[in-house]
Specification:
This protein has 126 residues and is mainly β. It has one domain (11-42, 51-115): Beta Barrel (OB fold (Dihydrolipoamide Acetyltransferase, E2P)), CATH 2.40.50. It is 8% helix and 57% strand. The chain is built from one helix and seven strands, in the order ββββαβββ. GO terms for molecular function: single-stranded DNA binding. Pfam families: SSB. Homotetramer.
Length: 126
């Protein structure tokens, strides 16, 4: 058995887009895409003893060529697999002065699972 002594920040999710992705250009024309992904997890049992499911919403961000592909081919309801890493932004709210946090997934691969353009990742840029 192999021992792993380091750390790892890797996320893999399969879900559906809750809305069309938001795409824009930032900085020197760098593409940026943000979308929310709905995934389900088992919930509590209801009154009849049937297992319910709960929806978890995760913000996903993609950059550069991957952002362009996501913006061109994804839309609300599409099922995708996202692979990437967790990121957390921290800032001071300008109005209240309170510290705010936002955790999201930075995608480095997106696989379209219900037809369409196919697998895209940052290595495909070249």
């Amino acid at each position: 058995m192999r021992s792993f002594r380091g750390t790892m920040n890797r996320v893999e999710l399969i879900g559906r887009l809750g809305a069309d992705p938001e795409v824009r250009q930032v900085g020197n024309g760098v593409s940026f895409c943000r979308f929310n992904l709905a995934t389900n997890r088992p919930g509590a049992n209801d009154e009849q003893g049937k297992r319910t499911s709960e929806t978890e919403w995760t913000t996903v961000e993609a950059w550069e060529r991957l952002a362009d592909v996501c913006g061109n081919y994804l839309q609300k309801g599409r099922r995708v697999m996202v692979m990437g890493s967790l990121r957390t932004d921290k800032w001071q709210d300008s109005e209240s002065g309170q510290t705010r946090w936002r955790t999201y997934v930075r995608a480095d691969e997106v696989i379209f699972l219900d037809g369409g353009a196919g697998r895209q990742d940052e290595e495909d840029e070249e």
